[in-house]
Amino acid sequence: MLQALDTWPILPVILTSTPTQPFHMKWGQRWDNMVSALESEHHNRICEIYIDNMTKYRWDRFAAAMQKPFPELKYLEVLLYAYGDVPVLPVSFLGGSAPCLRTLKLRSISFPSIPNLLLSASGLVALSLQEIPNSGYISPDTMATALTVMIRLESLCLQFRSPGSRPDPASRPLPPPTRFVLPALTKLIFNGVHEYLEDLLAQLDAPLLYYLYITFFMGHNFDLPQLHRLIGHTEAFKTFEHAKVLIFNTTVRLRFFPQRRTVDDPRLLELRISCSRLNLQLSSLAQVCSSFPHIPNVKELEIRESNYLGSSQWKDDMENAQFLELLHPFAALRDLYLTRGIAQRVCGALQELSGERATEVLPALRNLFLQGSSLQPIQEAMVPFVAARQLSGHPLVVDHWEN
């Protein structure tokens, strides 16, 4: 390979190495050729590096080869799938500077000195740090400082491996008097504890954001004023009047949609909470919804449970009442769609609201759609509730939902 480089014109070099490449040579030979190019005098021609699923035992040679400047490097992607101890990038990685870098993607790699490298990479367009281990923790204040130079950044992904990313409460700074603007940022993906995101968002604004995908580890007090501010001030989200709640074995998801959404619409607003206990899922989501922007404007809501969520996981009647707490902020909701398992619990909670209390929750609700072929007992149980709504001037139609 290196002899071939000597005979070629001086052209940019792209290095790609994945175990599934459909090449005739074996994975080990491809890897050796790639690292030889990194070690060679031709390294200053390398403009893109793609490494997918590199094994840890090959790490030392790679890390050693990358401890010098790569003046033409614009794209770097190194993805590991290590679930125990993770490799560490040295301080001298890329010579400590990457002024031409446009895209940086790292997964399952500890890089304690990355803030210094990021301060030199003012031209970054996409930054993705996935499965950040505890040993590679970067404080929100340090990350915010690095982001201040990235006026071209369009996509930011920060995904921590564990709740070890939780900032020390004693060291959390007060919000600054002014926030810096990321003028090009359109996409933000975050996975970690909500305190970290709050501390980061307290220092920045992103007026052009249209894609927001947040996953929180389980917490006890989801106070999210900075996230609410960011969403409330984002123009792209202001037409989101439809929502969906998805309940899975290990996560609960809240997703918003615009009134008229096309297949190619890039906008997304989704929040997830990772938790395997259903009662904690519901209480956490209810806490988030109680002050979440757009909730008061939602006209249509769909609540689904996973097909793998068995009835045995609903341990008692406590979840029924929790659904009322979850639904309470949806004051403008007109249409509510419920899958079979959810319908039994939501309707079980609603039918307990009789007389004047029938309009305490979902006062604007006009249509309740229930999924399933044997819902007659539920519909019959709802008759007193429907009658109470009729008497109060808030008529409700209960219908079957085919989906």
What would your notes on this structure say?
With 403 residues, this protein is of the alpha/beta class. Helix content is 26%, strand content 24%. Among the domains are: 1-167 and 179-190, Leucine-rich repeat, LRR (right-handed beta-alpha superhelix); 334-403, no CATH class. The strands form 2 sheets. It has a 15-stranded mixed beta sheet with strand order 1-2-3-4-5-6-8-10-13-12-11-14-15-16-17. The protein has a two-stranded parallel ribbon with strand order 7-9. The chain has helices spanning 2-7, 27-39, 59-65, 114-120, 140-147, 194-201, 225-232, 278-289, 318-327, 340-350, 376-381, 383-391, and strands spanning 13-17, 46-52, 75-79, 103-107, 126-132, 155-160, 180-181, 187-192, 204-205, 211-217, 240-247, 251-258, 268-274, 300-305, 335-338, 367-371, 397-401. It is built from 12 helices and 17 strands. It is elongated, with a radius of gyration of 26 Å.
Structural class designation: alpha/beta
Please state the CA-atom Rg, rounded to the nearest Å.
Answer: 26 Å
Which architecture of the domain at 1-167 and 179-190 does the CATH hierarchy give at level 2?
Answer: Alpha-Beta Horseshoe
Secondary structure tally, helices: 12
Can you tell me the CATH topology of the domain at 1-167 and 179-190?
Leucine-rich repeat, LRR (right-handed beta-alpha superhelix)
Query: Level of helix content?
Result: 25-40%
Give the terminus-to-terminus CA distance. Answer: 56 Å
The largest β sheet comes out as:
15 strands, mixed
SSE order, one letter for each helix or strand:
HEHEHEEHEHEEEHEEHEEEHEHEHEHHE
| Overall mean pLDDT | 85
